[in-house]
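pinging the channel bc i need a second pair of eyes. not urgent but kinda urgent?? the chain im working w is below, pasted from the shared doc
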Amino acid sequence: MQRMPKNTNYCTMEPFFPKSAFMLYVFVLQKGNTLGTVPIDAIYKTAQEASLGVMQTIEQFSNVDKVVTLAEECLLFPLRFESLYPLREEFWKNPQLKYTSHMRMTTFNKVMDYPSFFSLLVTPLSYDDSKKSWLYHPALPLSSSRDVSLIEKFMRESDHVVEPRAKNAAIYRIDGKLRFNWKDNKIKPFDNISKKIALKEN
């Protein structure tokens, strides 16, 4: 994980992980054409929070490219808490691997077709002292929630950003895939026969 200053107080706070949450993939559009599907780098406790997350993502995209936007519908992945994963100070000491956005997208692409085959490592991204609230990051999909060696390797070697005061990360089970219209907060079953998503631009 990303190296911290010498005076950092490691692993002193207990994050509160929700029992259930959502992860989102959005469809990126340019002049009506789909450029790709992107996992948003946050998890949300409610559909309303997820909708706000999409709007924030649209604002970020528009600051970079005014032509790029997001489809009204996206993919919603329900998450179910399974267990905690204890963090240790040594995880922040010697990161060697740069965990780029491209690497993350490639890693998460395999989840789209068979989400129920995967668990998800969720890490505390940051803690807001004034609001007393945590932000959580969908860090790494796992083919098995018992794949401790992969988690440890990722924590030790990557420069993935984690709040250094956090005592734990968490493992969630991915419970399938749904369709989500972020404009009206409507959630629909994902129809495996008709997989076409409404790609109307917002």
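so The chain has one domain: 20-189. and Residues 20-189 form one domain. — does that match what u expected or am i reading it wrong
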